[in-house]
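Issue 218. Parser rejects a valid record. Input:
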Amino acid sequence: MSLEENKELVRRWFAENDKRNEAIVDQMVAPDYLDHTPQLPGMPEDIRGTAPLKATLAVLREGFTDVEHEIDELIAEGDRVVARIRARGKFTGPIRDIQPNGKTIEITGVSIHRIADGKLVEHWANLDMLGFLQQLGVLPPLNAATPH
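Output the parser choked on:
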């Protein structure tokens, strides 16, 4: 695939996930997929294969409605596509032991996808997990008053 085709695959991945298209994993992801992205508490550290990916996406879809990914920048080189992204969605359903607060949550980060034979085969992301967990209410904001 060309660099532009690889970039289009990543664009489509985010767009179809925003549409809550559950079939997208079978269509776009290799069976031996490996995701190295740090997950939320109580979720697997590495996702190996499509079944764990589907399970993780189901948890996130249950917790967040109306998710939209905005791609701020997309760079392709060789078999990799790097996306600087921001995602927003309303936290309306529980995620593991974290209860929803009804707020619109935003997370930013950099996502790297490796592509082979027209499929996503590997993924890394560096996400603002501190800000994300603060918005979920799991951690206090950094400017919160501390007792002396």
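Fixed in the parser; the record now loads. The chain has one domain: 3-136.
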